[in-house]
């Protein structure tokens, strides 16, 4: 239990730190540009989801395989630098897109001409930082898997503090506007990764920095265990993009701004669950590598109980403080935005009764070298289910149906994931890789 609390508490704090700088962006942008700025930020959130997805697949997948192989005494000398290399490769399209195709991307995401003009400086600034945004997952995941979750947490905290302070400095005293918000957010993961150097340069570091010619087979093997993280993160992008398109047709830019309030508060809640899953992952992977099934199940049970407690707290707190969150991002006191956001919060956040267990069980599959159910569960949960329920329910109940789509999707996904878990237990698939 002591190890569980140590790893999970530090990981949750670190993930909240990462999500806080998205909230800082939202608050300052809403203060600077009102509901249009909030709408722009919500329209570009899927791009953050894509960077998160690739970064987590490469970083967490590589670190998970590293932990399992290390526990079994196998060679892991080139894992870290190969993960960094592939992050650099996968970041190139974001760099080029930001520099040359910002307007086209915003138009594709549903921005009208006015929102495009507001959003182009933001995209042109943030997307060239894609490598640092993505590689931050690798640097922090390896630190956690090298028995130092405290450093990973502190890196996230200092990264967020930097973003909050410089969001304000760049946007207001320096007059850089949305480009300033993007610059602060882009530099933040550099701060987080740099802080991890405390571990990598210290005596406790056991992560080797050997170099081999990059191997596609190695990439696939690591991505296989990170695929559920990829799909889980991309699910956020799919959800936001789907909701944006539906809401634009149903209630225009004001509806998008209202969803911006909900999606940003939701991102913090998701970060807590991701922190729980990422915190317990090294413990489960190590137990699996050592073939200690009893300890593995104990860590999973601790995780489920923790997820349920967090769910109850989130549901109570978000509903109780809904007016506070809406006012925080509604600087213009737009009454339509308030009505949409109030109804959305009341319905949308029931999903978090299921999100925690879903996230934890998917992480369990990956941590125990069982990528197939992790991938299928994440894929159905993050794409097919949410799109199906969003289209179906919005057709019958308009905005009410949009808000109900997320809870219905997560409830359905829980049934599917529990089926895979029961099947795995029955067939006793905990076998060495």
UniProtKB/TrEMBL annotation:
Q: How does it sit in the membrane?
A: Multi-pass membrane protein
Give a GO biological-process term. response to antibiotic
User: What are the subcellular locations of this protein?
Assistant: Cell membrane
Keyword terms, alphabetized:
Antibiotic resistance, Cell membrane, Membrane, Transmembrane, Transmembrane helix, Transport
In terms of InterPro entries, this protein maps to: MATE_fam, MATE_MepA-like, MATE_MepA_subfamily, MdtK-like
**What GO annotations for molecular function exist for this entry?**
antiporter activity; xenobiotic transmembrane transporter activity
Which Pfam families does its entry note? MatE (PF01554)
What superkingdom heads the lineage? Bacteria
CDD domains for this protein: MATE_MepA_like
Q: Membrane among the record's keywords?
A: yes
Q: Which family does it belong to?
A: Belongs to the multi antimicrobial extrusion (MATE) (TC 2.A.66.1) family. MepA subfamily.
Annotated protein name in UniProt:
Multidrug export protein MepA
């Amino acid at each position: 239990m002591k190890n569980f609390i140590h790893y999970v508490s530090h990981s949750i704090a670190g993930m909240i730190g990462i999500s806080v700088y998205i909230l800082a962006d939202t608050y300052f942008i809403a203060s600077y540009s009102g509901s249009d700025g909030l709408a722009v930020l919500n329209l570009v959130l899927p791009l953050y989801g894509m960077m998160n997805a690739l970064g987590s697949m490469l970083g967490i997948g590589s670190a998970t395989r590293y932990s399992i192989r290390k526990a079994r005494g196998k060679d892991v000398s080139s894992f870290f630098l190969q993960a960094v290399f592939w992050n650099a490769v996968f970041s190139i399209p974001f760099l080029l897109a930001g520099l040359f195709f910002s307007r086209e991307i915003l138009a594709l995401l549903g921005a009208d001409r006015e929102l495009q003009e507001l959003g182009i400086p933001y995209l042109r600034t943030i997307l060239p930082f894609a490598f640092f945004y993505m590689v931050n997952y690798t640097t922090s995941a390896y630190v956690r898997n090298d028995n130092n979750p405290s450093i990973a947490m502190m890196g996230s905290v200092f990264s967020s503090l930097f973003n909050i302070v410089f969001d304000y400095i760049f946007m207001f005293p320096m007059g850089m506007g949305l480009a300033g918000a993007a610059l602060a957010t882009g530099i933040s993961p550099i701060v987080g990764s740099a802080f991890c150097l405390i571990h990598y340069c210290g005596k406790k570091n056991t992560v080797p920095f050997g170099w081999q010619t990059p191997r596609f087979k190695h990439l696939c093997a690591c991505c296989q265990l990170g695929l559920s993280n990829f799909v889980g993160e991309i699910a956020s992008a799919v959800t936001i993009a789907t909701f944006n398109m539906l809401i634009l047709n149903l209630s225009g830019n004001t509806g998008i701004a209202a969803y911006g309030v909900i999606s940003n508060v939701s991102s913090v809640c998701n970060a807590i669950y991701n922190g729980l899953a990422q915190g317990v992952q090294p413990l489960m992977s190590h137990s699996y590598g050592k073939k200690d099934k009893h300890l593995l199940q104990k860590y999973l049970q601790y995780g489920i109980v923790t997820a349920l407690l967090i769910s109850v707290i989130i549901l109570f707190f978000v509903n109780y403080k809904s007016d506070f969150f809406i006012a925080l991002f509604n600087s213009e006191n737009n009454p339509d935005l308030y009505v949409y956001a109030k109804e959305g919060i009341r319905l949308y956040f029931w999903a978090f009764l299921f999100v925690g267990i879903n996230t934890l069980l998917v992480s369990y599959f990956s941590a125990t070298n069982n990528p197939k159910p992790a991938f299928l569960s994440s894929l159905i949960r993050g794409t097919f289910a949410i799109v199906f329920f969003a289209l179906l329910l919005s057709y019958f109940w308009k905005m009410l149906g949009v808000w109900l789509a997320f809870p219905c999707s997560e409830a359905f996904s829980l049934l599917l994931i529990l089926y895979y878990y029961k099947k795995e237990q029955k067939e006793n698939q905990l076998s060495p890789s």
